[in-house]
Specification:
Oligomer: single chain
Number of strands: 0
Order of helices and strands: HHHHHHHHH
Structural class: mainly alpha
Shape: globular
Length: 195
């Protein structure tokens, strides 16, 4: 991405540039100085768009959550049941593979309780509940299942990014087997909640 002229620099362009830094060098390398350098501006100019590094990290986290939601929602179009859960799950893992820094940023919001961060994350939870509807889970059961699915997807993505899967087994096949085992088990959630 070539630097844009200083005039007309908008927040979406700035956050995309921050995402590129995160993906290429890691989210910890997203600083006001590195971002200003990439954009060809002076660091103080960034304060016109957000409140320092904390504001930048918040915007990057929300940007990442929104992008993750988009790929998951696109994957859910035209499918239902097990096929939808698998498609959405594969989209999640593929997003983490393609955008490791942006994915990491989704987990590092300076204040996870921030209303804007919560609103962005709620879309992913709602989508996950909808794709799991075929399993007839309601209320707390549905939320427990969403937590379980998220744990699988994040754990798998995190281990893969950190080089935790050294065996010569197909990672996509492993993911599919794990998801199918999980889906076979969520029909038992009501029984498990009683025990």
């Amino acid at each position: 991405m070539s630097p844009r002229p200083k005039i007309g620099l908008d927040i979406s362009f700035i956050i995309e540039a921050a995402g590129e830094i995160a993906d290429q060098y890691g989210v910890q390398e997203v600083t006001l100085a590195s971002l200003a350098k990439k954009l060809g501006i002076r660091p103080p100019s960034l304060y016109n768009h957000f409140d320092g590094l904390t504001g930048l990290r918040k915007k990057l986290a929300i940007y990442g959550i929104d992008k993750l939601y988009e790929v998951m929602a696109d994957a859910a179009i035209g499918v239902s049941g097990t096929e939808a859960v698998i498609a959405v799950s594969q989209a999640y893992v593929n997003f983490a593979r393609k955008h490791p820094g942006i994915y990491e940023a989704t987990l590092l919001a300076p204040d996870p309780e921030d209303v804007d961060v919560q609103r962005a994350g709620a879309k992913i939870v709602d989508l996950s509940v909808r794709v799991l509807q075929a399993y007839q889970l309601e209320g707390e059961e549905a939320l427990h299942a969403v937590r379980g699915l998220r744990s699988i997807l994040h754990g798998f993505s995190s281990l893969e990014q950190k080089g935790g899967f050294k065996m010569s087994l197909d990672l996509n096949e492993s993911l599919l087997i794990i998801l199918k085992a999980f889906l076979a088990g969520i029909g038992q959630i009501d029984r498990l909640m009683e025990g």
